Hints:
Blueprint: H1 3-10, H2 18-39, H3 47-59, E1 70-74, H4 82-88, E2 93-97, H5 101-114, E3 119-122, H6 126-132, E4 137-140, H7 146-153, E5 162-167, H8 171-177, H9 179-184, E6 187-196, E7 203-211, H10 215-218
Parallel strand pairs: 1-2, 1-4, 2-3, 4-5
Antiparallel strand pairs: 5-7, 6-7
Helix pairs in contact: 1-2, 1-3, 2-4, 2-5, 3-4
Amino acid sequence: MNFVEELERVLPADLPNRARVVEKAGQHLTLIVAANEHLNLTRITSPGDAAIKHVLDSVLPWRLFAGAKKVVDAGSGPGFPGVPLSLVLPEVRFVLAESVQKKARFLDSAIEEMGLENVIVLPQRAEDVLRALKADTVTARAVAPISRAVGLFAPAVKAGARALFYKGPDAETEIAEAAIEIKKHRMYLRVVERYDLPDGLGTRTVVEMTRYGRLEDRNDSSRSD
Length: 225
């Protein structure tokens, strides 16, 4: 499968470290396909769909992560969005939290084979990882509905930290439905980026969650609660 050709086709020309992303992300997808026969890592394996839905989707909001020091990818699965983002931003430390042991072992092996020095894998639940270490950014792509995600990740979002959730086109509806949980945990949620994937493969919305309490948040008419 020629993942490199598809990555060359879809990745933005101005993506930082683009050549390295194409090479290493192609290697990552190849490793996933090889392991997928017995691990069931993903249903998306065709070169075009994998390049867009796995890699492009992960890296398009890279600017939101550019100022981070340590990012925890909660429930990383086969490594998305953490691995592609780590290729774009080699100066940022990434922790891939994956509680399914066979997936964590795959990630460990893939990270070693790809030579990614800014990535570690922890075979634990994200909530346990976040209690044990400090991170300024938490992210998740295959995340629970926002009404549940708020409770799961609020304890990790201290003052100055944030969570970035990759959601579909109905993120505002999810935020509205989570109003009680948002207020209970004193969180502030807002949509910070939205983009359409090529080839008609859907719309992505990135939702930021921070701790509510700043004066400017109290006066912000876009507050979720």
